[in-house]
Write a structure and sequence with these properties.
Elements: E1 4-9, H1 20-28, E2 31-34, H2 41-44, E3 52-55, H3 61-73, E4 77-82, H4 92-102, E5 105-109, H5 114-122, E6 135-139, H6 152-156, E7 161-165, H7 171-181, E8 188-193, E9 201-206, H8 210-217, E10 223-227
Parallel strand pairs: 1-4, 1-5, 2-3, 2-4, 6-7
Antiparallel strand pairs: 7-10, 8-9, 8-10
């Protein structure tokens, strides 16, 4: 009988942010392949004591595929641990392709993205009413090229909330492109380094200040950069925006609004 592979989101770092399903899969897996350069060892400590555990940082695509398909062919349960959520900036697509070609069953277990751990650290609502109802998730160009139409200048025209992954080492170029594309230099921005880890670092400022703040803090990797007016601390003040959902005069499927607004 062929086994099954689970692609498991390990969350942003803190093991407490693993989902219940992720913990269950780790406790049952015979073989665990984890991104050891990005995931806390505390997560792997939740595995069975007799599980075969392999770090993937030093492995090639072919070696990872061989571990997954070989174990599944022996009827074993495999947990392939990705940092954050498997659907964002991982190798999920190519690994699913291998399993599809081999006829091996697999399941994706979502995880908490570092984007949302960063928002939690900043205590912000990324989609503040009347300020931004759009979140763009992107990266600065590097060895992985950007598809046509997705350069930062083009995305900046929206001036919505924007999250930069994998860009801490290229912030000067990224910020220049965002400003050229439409963001004002004084747009609120923040860098969150290793969100939810014990050494988490939060740096707030304006967009134009981000390269300097990152350089002074020595941050070149494992950081999320957030940009947009939704990060403005003043929004939490008494004159800040409010949603319509809980307004007494607003009607929806579960409640009829009152004309007197009370």
């Amino acid at each position: 009988m062929t086994g099954k592979v689970y692609f498991v989101g390990a969350g942003p770092g803190d093991p407490d942010l693993l989902t219940v399903r992720a913990v269950r899969v780790l406790a049952e897996a015979d073989v665990v392949i984890w991104a050891d350069s990005l995931i806390s060892p505390e997560v792997v400590a939740l595995c069975r004591s007799d599980a075969q555990v392999h770090g993937s940082a030093s492995l090639t695509r072919e070696e990872i595929a061989a571990l997954m398909t070989g174990a599944a062919a022996e009827g074993k349960t495999v947990a392939r641990l990705h940092s954050g959520d498997p659907s964002l900036y991982g190798a999920l697509l190519e690994e699913m392709r291998v399993l599809d070609e081999a006829g091996i069953e697999y399941e994706i277990v979502p995880g908490v993205s570092s984007l949302f751990a960063a928002a939690a650290a900043l205590k912000v609502e990324l989609t503040a009413p009347g300020v931004s109802q759009t979140v763009i998730v992107t990266r600065a160009p590097g060895r992985t090229p950007m598809p046509e139409g997705e350069d930062l200048r083009a995305l900046a025209r929206h001036r919505s909330t924007l999250a930069l992954f994998l860009s801490a080492a290229r912030l000067r170029e990224a910020v220049a492109a965002l400003v050229e594309g439409g963001y004002a230099p004084d747009t609120p921005a923040a860098i969150v380094y290793r969100a939810s880890w014990p050494d988490e670092m939060v740096l707030r400022g304006t967009l134009s200040e981000m390269p300097r703040l990152a350089r002074e803090a020595g941050i070149t990797r494992q950081a999320i950069v957030l940009v947009g007016k939704a990060l403005d601390p003043a929004l939490k003040g008494p004159q800040g925006p409010t949603s319509s959902l809980y307004d007494p005069s607003f009607s929806h499927l579960f409640r009829r609004g009152r004309k007197d607004g009370r």
